[in-house]
Amino acid sequence: MSELGLLDTGGILRQAWVAPDRTSSGLGWEHAYLSTQRETPYHSTFDGAPTHLLILHLSGPVTVRRRSGRSMRAQRIPAGGLFVHPAGRALDVELQGGLDTVHLYLSDSALQQAHGGREAVELAEELGSSDPLIEQVMLTLDGVVRQWEPSARTYVDHLVGMLAAQLAHAHTAGRPAAPAGAMSGLTSQQLVSARELMEQHISDPLRVSDLAAATGLSASQFSRQFRTSTGKSPHQFLLQLRLDHARRMLRTTVLPIPDVAVHCGFSHQEHLTRVMRAKLGTTPAAVRRAG
Questions:
Q1: 219 closest CA partner among 235, 239, 242, 203
Q2: pTM of structure
Q3: Angle at CA of residue 109, ends 151 and 145, nearest 5°
Q4: Helices and strands (H and E) in the chain: how many
Q5: Has residue 264 got a pLDDT over 60?
Q6: Measuring CA to CA, how many Å separate 36 from each of 4, 91, 129, 275?
Q7: Exposure string (b/e) for 2-31, b if CB count within 10 Å is 16 or more?
Q8: Mean pLDDT across 148-166
């Protein structure tokens, strides 16, 4: 699947009143497109898009009006408020003041997969709702775009899966109950398969969907069961493997530190140094000196 892009967004971001500061364009995100921008007042209509739209208000309060069928609803939305619009539906919206926003466009396949592959789930239209988890995930994704590194690909997959799961759980038109007998963690063989794949691709960007395929699960199921089994997200676990591998190489080889960093899946020496200092309280040079 190719990455989501501007053509998947339904038209809002192509308007003259929107000036994006940064987007996920070109980063290879398959199931989400993110854009952070300043919007000026407007009133317009848009055809239904193939993606679900979430807008996080970074400033405010500001009044937003939204037409649905014959009814018109207006809401004064503060910073942190959410605008949710399902895929495939035309949108009639009016923004009555300047506003800083993060837009997140989510593929329907990601939403349905997060729902566990059961009957199709449909998002509700929301205007000014609040969800601290979705707010934090969207801000984190914006931070990833701001300081992008290829090794963050697995992290992005995890965050998008988390966001999709929260939408499927708490923002649907009809909230179905979780199925009985849900799994509680990966089997031993599934965990071995996932770890072996991580170790085989220690220096490569690795998608959660690839790890899930090795275990026979959907990406959202895999992420949940992996955390249950290990206490860590796939990204956190892979990062720890990379750090462990880097420490072994620093102690047992004379390979230059920049080469060790790349060999272990870090973008460059500074990236390895930053992560090692944050996670282990030391640096690659100090590990090498300690032997």
A1: 235
A2: 0.72
A3: 30
A4: 10, 10
A5: yes
A6: 15, 20, 19, 26
A7: eebeeebbbebbeeeebeeeebbbebebbb
A8: 92
